Amino acid sequence: MTSEIDVLVLGGAGVDTIVYVPGLPLPFADSYLIRPGIETRAGQSGDFVALGVHALGLRTHHLDMIGDDHEGELVRALHRDRGIPFTDVRQSGGTKRAVNLVDPEGRRLSLYDASRSREDDRLPEESVRALAGASRHAHVVITHPCAHTLPTLREAGVTLSTDLHDWDGENPYHEPFAHAADLVFLSTTALPDPERTMRQIVERGRAEAVVATAGADGAYLLADDEVTHIPAVTPPAAIVDSNGAGDAFAAGFLLGWLAGEPPHRCALYGAVAGAHACTVPATRADAISRDELLTRVKEWERDGARPPYGTPQ
């Protein structure tokens, strides 16, 4: 049976308000004059992964809960304008929102509005089953309703990926996602010992590969029982914002993964896509194209990298 969808993205649809600040942490003051201004746009983790894989030429579908509100219409418009199929389920608490404080170096502090979700929020099982049955792969964002989709997705036989973001390796909330996925992304930000956590994910779950991104220090890839350091790729322009870099990395990695590329080359795809994302202002939702990514990969391999890409630890 031929799949109609390459990547089904579940969860992570929402709206961010971008506030540029003079520095992080932001010193206390009565007020600040903000330039270039304060802007609100659609785009959270699931949106950015969907945009990323779609821009890379993969057939994409996004499923999530959003509200019947202005923010929800921004999310619908983003998908409509980019030509990304989007199945939205009504969320009674309203569309997910966050405020991102961005400093001049592109670093970000996100403030998430926890009042949007409800304990009984669920993605309809029949929708999950039907979409999964038409898909090659599902990327699952770690929002509450998505945790309940994991058994259905596994029954459907699709491969799974997830991004645990700044997991500390201990919070039990993340464990169902970490242990159900074939491919796991996470950040090193809160990990005292990244390799130990990466190996625990493999030992306790079903992951074939784990990637821990480390910002300007690159990333670490665990595959075939070996941890390899993946160097950062020099961005093609000035770094203006790190928002969405991890989502772009995941999208680039998935392009290689679904094409059957070896993990190290998938990581190079991810590093190139993540570097591109750092050059895009937080007020925009843009992603690298397949042609641009493959061109930069060839340039990197020609000028900077020596196969196999990365250094064993």
Structural class: alpha/beta
**How many H/I helices?**
10
What's the pLDDT, averaged over the residues? Answer: 93
First-last Cα distance: 41 Å
In short:
This protein has 313 residues and is α/β, with parallel strands linked by helices.
Keywords:
313 residues; alpha/beta; ten-stranded mixed sheet; four-stranded mixed sheet; 10 helices; 14 strands
Task: Explain what you see.
With about 325 residues, the chain is α/β, with parallel strands linked by helices. It has ten helices and 14 strands. Strand 9, helix 6 (about 175-180) and strand 10 (about 185) form a beta-alpha-beta unit. The model has no long low-confidence stretch (mean pLDDT about 95).
Sequence-ordered SSE layout with sheet pairings:
Blueprint (H helix, E strand, L loop, with lengths): L4 E6 L3 E7 L17 E5 L2 H11 L4 E7 L3 H13 L3 E5 L5 E7 L5 E5 L12 H9 L1 E6 L3 H4 L2 H7 L2 E5 L11 H6 L2 E5 L6 H11 L4 E5 L5 E5 L2 E5 L14 H14 L4 H15 L12 H14 L7 E2 L1
Parallel strand pairs: 1-4, 1-8, 2-6, 4-5, 8-9, 9-10, 10-11
Antiparallel strand pairs: 2-3, 6-7, 11-12, 12-13, 13-14
Helix pairs in contact: 1-8, 8-9, 9-10
